[in-house]
Amino acid sequence: MTRTLVTNDDGIEAPGLRAMAQAARAAGLDVVIAAPATQSSGSSASITAVEADGRIAVEPRALAGLEDVPAYAVQGGPGLIALIAARGAFGEPADLVLSGVNHGANVGRAILHSGTVGAALTGALNGAWGAAVSLDAGLRPLELHWDVAAAAAVGLVPRLLERPRGTVVNVNVPNAPRLRGVVEARLASFGIVQTTLTEREEHHLRLAVEDLPSSPDPGTDAACLADGWVTVTGIASVAGVELGLFPGPQA
Amino acid sequence: MAPDDSDGRDVTIFAPAPILTVTVEERPAGDEIHVHAGGQGVWQARMLLRLGTSVTMCCVLSGETGVVLRHLLEDEGIAVRAVERAGRGAAYLHDRRSGERRLVAEEAGDPLGRHELDELYGLVLGSAPDSRVTILSGPADLASLPPDTYRRLAADLRAAGATVAADLSQARLAAAVEGGLAVLKVSDEELRRDGLAGESVEAIVAAMHELRARGAAVVIVTRAGEPLLLLDEEGVLEVTPPRMEVADHRGAGDSLFAGVVSGLARGETIRDAVVLGAAAGALNVTRHGLGSGDAEAVARLRRSVTTRRIGQDGADHPVSGRVSPEGLAALATGGIPLPARRPSAGGEPRR
Hints:
Number of domains of chain A: 1
CATH architecture of chain A: 3-Layer(aba) Sandwich
Strand order of the largest sheet of chain B: 5-4-1-8-9-10-11-12-13-14
Oligomer: heterodimer
Structural class of chain A: alpha/beta
CATH class of chain A: Alpha Beta
Radius of gyration of chain B: 22 Å
């Protein structure tokens, strides 16, 4: 069975996390859940954490409907979680990191800032396959089809595992009971990324940061998602670029 | 039934110009001539009566047709408070002997003069305090009454403490909402025609929020064949009536509205009243209008109506908004304010 870390940036209580874990378990994956104790949207691959008594605070949780799946609430963001999971913090390291299902789209190059994407990339940097999955909830959703999005994402896993380790896909799913289909699309130049502003007294303001008015270039992930497609984009984390400004080190 | 003009009735209906309808039909024994009262307010009154709710109608009765109309209305059990005047009233004559409806003659009636309108206004304001609910209905003739009348009437009735309900469209809808309504019923078709909403449920709900923001405390949207939607201070409720062998949706909206008003007139909450309305609407569609003895059938049917809160999924989520990267920068420099928090009334997350 493929050892799978399910994480997110919306927090351990988020319905999208539960849907993802349920879909992964139903697909026969060996699931462990570790997610931020609090909302961490826009945290990218941040590895900040809250320490208590000299330790990163980790609390075991039982999630409704997933009582048989080990789950941990972590006082840190998804990037940190993926990093320490790869070092055995939550048992045997994962072969696959499923991050999401995020509340709100993560499309275009602005996904640099996404905590959802940050966890998937961090997992890949440490030798796993990664998938960042987001539901395009819109501003005033009446219903959120978490299960549809999670099933669509988990359905892509066999194809993902055919690729080399370290492969990461960014997946966005329209909020609909039935889906039109899947397309592979390039990143929009800016796109959309979710963040939260924390106010005093613990209030959060959820914000979608996006080019406004949004009229994405045709063929990009942002445009295809708006047209009702599930979008899949292969993404890579930091990589060096040779500039040729100076000679390299002599052997 | 001899209505007592002095007592309080459950519901007051503002029905500016009821119509006298004369229809000729062919029967084996020869032609039959039917004489009835018609118009939206009369329809509403008739269905309220069938649901066991008493009605006072405030209207203008003109000339000979007015004399006949008063008798017809009172014979049906409606208490009539009328401004009586000489001149022509609204009436039509239809010939159905060919099997199709052929218009033989129609008169719109003389426009209401300022004095008559003032007098009618006074009748409504005098009757409303004795009723649990006051309905503003529209005349069939769109030109005969300035829409602003509905704004003033809604505002004055509300100021007098009345619970005002309306099933209007277009300019009258906008005016009445501006004046302030306790309950507005509108169909999704009318919302689309008025350019207020698109096809999707999300677009309809957005339009409902807009109407609520403009002054309708409760907005009910009927959708032919689909569950109806209610928006009140607690958020959106989807109401699904039992499936019936649907013959025709015509008149179902009127039955629904009457059911809602009837429930309110009995002191029910709006969320209970809309269930009664859905049952009345469902019964209607099987046979084009409510009939006598239907109060019991509606009471039985309401047990089969299901309701579901929608738009609550994000209840534990923070308030949502959209911002451009430039806007984010401006947040730091004080250039623009944060997206406004909406009042908790709009089904927004509680936190």
